[in-house]
Specification:
The structure is a homohexamer. The first copy, chain A, is an alpha/beta fold. The first copy, chain A, has one domain (19-283): 3-Layer(aba) Sandwich (Carbamate kinase), CATH 3.40.1160.10. The first copy, chain A, has helices at 3-20, 32-35, 37-52, 64-73, 89-113, 152-159, 183-193, 227-232, 240-252, 268-274; strands at 24-29, 56-61, 80-81, 84-85, 118-122, 129-133, 144-149, 163-167, 169-172, 178-180, 198-203, 221-222, 257-262, 281-283. In chain A, the strands form three sheets. The first copy, chain A, has an eight-stranded mixed sheet, sandwiched between helices. In chain A, strand 9 (169-172) and strand 10 (178-180) form a beta hairpin. In chain A, helix 4 (64-73) crosses helix 5. The longest helix of chain A has 25 residues, at 89-113. Chain A starts with a helix and ends with a strand. Chains in contact: A-B, A-F, B-C, C-D, D-E, E-F. Chain B binds chain C through residues 1, 3-15, 17-18, 21, 42, 45-46, 48-49, 52-54, 114-115, 265-267, 270-271, 274-275, 279, and chain C through 1, 3-15, 17-18, 21, 42, 45-46, 48-49, 52-54, 114-115, 265-267, 270-271, 274-275, 279. Chains A, B, C, D, E, F: GO terms for molecular function: acetylglutamate kinase activity.
């Protein structure tokens, strides 16, 4: 690439940098982008760049595969009910150790390796996330739903220049037990509580496709009012339903817009934020 | 107890509260005080009370027994060399999960249960503790020695009203790997870096005893210059030697004084801080 | 008292310390608690302890007996009309000297003796209290009623870490003369203007008693709506009426609650604030 | 006076206003300027104007005549030893009441009458002035010499926009008793502790005169090095000696300059500060 | 003038200084007061004095005569349509150079010569003034009307202690071209946006006269409701109409009052602000 | 360019963005980069991007060609002595109008057009640059050398988020006249006073060339100690000498490094700051 082209790219990014300056963007980090070493590095670098150009990124992560791995080592079977992990007390212990001790701290470590400053938190810290037992026909154990978000520790660490990295665990508001929470929902609730500019959900699909077999049929932009129709028509279906729901919920609570983004594309966050077309499905 | 007596105790505490107001006290929390549910609650309550009366407490913890337990579950044997756990890469993973994900977050959770506000950190967060591989004749794996302390995240969270709780893990300054660090040493280094007023090491002994079989022979006060003689005479010996060393090191780096305290006595921290006699061995 | 008991008292106080942290409490200081040297010291120590545990105490005082003493020395008779001192210009001069120069500065001096930091003020300073002549059938001279409270000097000194001590004199809004004000009313008006958490009136009785001859008949808690009935029944009578009125007035203007407290009991303020039962009559 | 002349005076004052902007000036207020109603008003207005044009004035006062008057009323004789009032415990009580309760608060009241905001303090408040018993061949009772000045309460009230008015009483550093202090010395010590720009001593003479019988022989300017010679020659003599000493002491401790000013001339402070010639004797 | 008289003037100014303390006053500076060297100095000194006594002055200026002079040098004729200069692109260039480069910087220079601190701005700086082309039957070129005022740069420089001096040019909100704006209107819009206490328009007439041939017929005070009648009667006429309109507009947008002042009288601003009668026509 | 390449450029810039975060960079803007409309836009966009990524850019400019043009219009000949414009009083007037009123405000306008916030200043504003007449064998009129830099107005506007744009005029410290200053020297002195990280001089050559006829012979890096030898050898010669001198002077006064950069290359600032090789000659 020659000089002119390099400069062009930086200057093309300028209006987007101006638009996002000082804004908060919550990134739900998961899927292949968290498993592949190479992709992990590109995501981390994207997040550091966001911070450098004046954006306040907040990273939210789960860690399903790591949890399952670890349960395997302990000869404990992972059991799922309607897509949610059945979480007895012993399993919750493992969830907390894997999310809070392994995945979380490793992400912090990686950010610092590339010159960023990060703080690893989970919903227990500073009472960030309070929860109660999720209502469900079949008992799911310590699977919770969020009842309150106290963003104080996020604001404190953001304004001190850190990138907060949050594992998806919450504190039981009545029993002070730890609860396992869906990471997409954590991200959505945190974005809403922070009145974030944007929620980004990193996934393993290109976004919402009109025709799932054709990646060129990506819907770049989706308005709230189009969603019911597309759901009825089956365009939004399967695993995409709860993701779209998370986006809708966040927007209804004051987030400007939300994007479902393909985490398998290197630097997909940068490309989404700092170029004209964007590359995922943006809902607003 | 009647009214007069209750009031007397509060008023007796007044000059000590005035003395410690706005000062930082680092508490190394370990031993039985961390294992027994009952003692754990009294320690946590003591720490919250410290915060309430204007002291800035910082809690540092290890978690040896929990680590060993967990390695057992995985059929991995704990191996110790000169009192230090041999820590290969897999073991380090477990150490990080247990300290950072289990012990640390459970302490935070407990503080919040009793009305305090806490943040769980380890040395990786905000580059709080940097380390390199500990020099040793026999290879110890990922056992490290601290090379730098960045207190910024502690100051940020303290001034935002939180009690920081720190697990004894550090970030390799060259390899960005996690290192296992002795928790007493973590506490000592952090106290020094914060120019703390006091370092408290909670242990399972009454303090330094002239005659180990007689708990009435406790040395309440120990001056730096007395230590070499007492070491030669064998009064300071065994597991007490590294603890005294930690205290001496902290004082040499600017901490006002350090106390080795019996964590088995309920509310030993309160009794030490807020009554005339104190109950451990204070070194200054 | 043994170690355990001492620790217990401190820990029992913890939830109350947490509740009052950062709150403002106005204490009307008078009666025997101001005359007896011994009681004076216990009150002063209670107030310093309040400050130490993060409460913002404001002390308001009168000084009737000292004024009468001094008038006696000058062979001037104290004259009371409906319980209010007839205050001609000469008498007002004496009132101002005794309250502002003697009682006030001696309290400040005593607080400093025990390690607190205090500032002695009267309503003239910083236009804290403005007044006009009290309307009355019989002329009372320079007896005033408060027309405005400017809390700026209280906020300034509180946030600089001082305990303000206020003598019950106000500045005539029209004539710039000094006016003699009832100290209970001063305390009530100041508490209201500061939106204080609590008003405490120290008196020489145990509180509101159902049967005045039986100190066990103390009403620990009194709700606003119960007061008219108890007044009609004569349970609230005599000198208790204006005290209850002060409390009611303060609560109506935004103070959370008000307590009539027996200043003859040593450390009655501490016992009221930091123990479960409390010992006076709390109105809310 | 016509328009042009009025404007001329204001504009002539401009360079002086610029010079003193943000500077602290300590005014010792005493003598006829404090007794005559008319002069009192002009002094008070001068001080308010100082505040308005960005100067930080601090007023220090004694009150000898008022004290003597009041002792007379109590049939107590004023006794002076080497120009200092013998001050037994009873007398000290009266001194404190008259200075702290009467003179001080009346000055505050007067400042507020003319639109200023003032706070009345004495050396006891905020431990502003600490003292010990003045060494003397003949016992003088509670006459003290200043051992420490804590300017915190002055800085707090100045920066909150108030004019501090300070009565010349100090707190015994060992016995916590009140001590009677010479007001010129109070002003000098406070000016030094505040690193004031200027100390002004209001007196009943025109300044230092070469020929005491000829007011045209006023020395407008006096340099430190000239003073010993003028003392030997008897030009500085009698009551002028301690005043000049106060000025010299203040300058040695860091005050820029000090002026002995005739308080009998209306608005002498304004004329000294805001016109070319000045009207007193300035020492530097 | 003797001492007493000098002091009298300063003291007479005191209540006015108190009234204006911390308030913002916008001065439209023009006419003879800007052309005569002597008058220019008196205006500048008045403005510095305002700053010294705690007022926040903002100076707004045009520069018609200088522009015409310069156009002459370039053999370009000044052309006026309904009192507004026809401003083609070349002329606008000259306007910008003369106002922004010459008149503006020379005023700043003069303020600094007399000890003030000033910053020279025009409406382009910090997007202070946005404009669009003035609607008009006959094309006026780059003559604009103000569409938005961003006072941020004024507040920034005022609170840093500077006197902002603003040339009457604005930035085209659509074309980013420079626009020539009437300076009276600039001053009025800026005063409104700053919620100023007062707008002062310096002119070459004494104010609004009942009888234009008799300067004693000056209307010192004019209420908004009187204006329509006086306009109908022809008392307000000619060049006075737009000036009165500016005042009315400013008051309607929140400015307390506005004064049309004779800039030919030396120190007319001081006399207006700091003496009882004032000397212009005040509208409120 | 494809997605990957775009992302690559942004990520390549990351370490440079991290390095310059919060640092001040002074850009001397001149030559073709200021004359060509196209280049002007690229420079302005580079500067805005600098601000967006957390750098504090300060722009310093002259305007020789515009000045000559304007003098031509007035039939005034530009006269140069040793490369410096002879500046009589009339010429200085024109210099001030062109630099302060035309070039400066047009740059501000352009920055705002592309979404930045700028403030146009010259050395007169806030006494930013003080000067005296440049000593010279032949009289140069109002050509000055800088004697003092007051960076207060730069710090004020930088911290309020503005990009300061400074025209190269200074205020005579003795005569309060305006002085014409070389813009390279202005930039160097301002960089030194701000303790800037970097000084960039935009010129019309590629940098220091070993062989002036071969642009591949560019010296990318030049250490201070190499300069004398290269001067002797004639590698640094002609117009390059004063530019190198400016850089050396700035570095000696505390600027980290200085770069002579080819302003004819579009986005040369971006390429220099945010890519590995850089494109000019950096001196340190």
């Amino acid at each position: 690439m020659n000089h002119n082209e390099r400069a062009e790219v930086l200057i093309d990014a300028l209006p987007y940098i101006q638009r996002y300056y000082g804004k908060t963007i919550v990134v739900k980090y998961g899927g292949n982008a968290m498993i592949s070493d190479k992709l992990r590095e590109t995501v981390i670098n994207d997040i550091i760049l966001m911070k450098c150009v004046g954006i306040n990124p907040v990273v939210v992560h789960g860690g399903g595969p790591d949890i399952s791995d670890f349960l395997n080592k302990l000869n404990k079977k992972s059991e799922f009910i309607n897509g949610l992990r059945y979480t007895d007390e012993d399993t919750m212990d493992i969830v907390q150790m894997v999310l809070g001790g392994k995945v979380n701290k490793n992400l912090v470590s990686l950010i610092e390796k590339f010159g960023g400053k990060a703080i690893g938190l989970c919903g227990i810290d500073g009472c960030l996330l309070k929860a109660k037992k999720l209502k469900s026909d079949i008992d799911l154990g310590y699977v919770g739903e969020i009842t309150a978000v106290d963003t104080n520790i996020l604001n404190t660490t953001l304004s001190a220049g850190y990138i907060p990295v949050v594992g998806s665990i919450a504190l039981g508001e009545e029993d002070n037990k730890s609860y396992n929470i869906n990471a997409d929902i954590c991200a959505s609730k945190i974005a809403a509580a922070l009145k974030a500019q944007k929620l980004i959900l990193l996934t393993d699909v290109p976004g919402v496709l009109m025709d799932p077999s054709d990646s060129d049929s990506l819907l770049s932009v989706l308005r709230l009012h189009q969603i019911p129709k597309l759901s009825l028509e089956g365009v939004i279906k399967g695993g995409m339903i709860p993701k779209v729901d998370c986006c809708v919920e966040a927007i209804r609570m004051g987030v400007e817009n939300a994007t479902i983004l393909d985490g398998r594309i290197p630097h997909s966050i940068l490309l989404e934020l700092f170029s004209h077309e964007g590359i995922g499905t943006m809902i607003y």
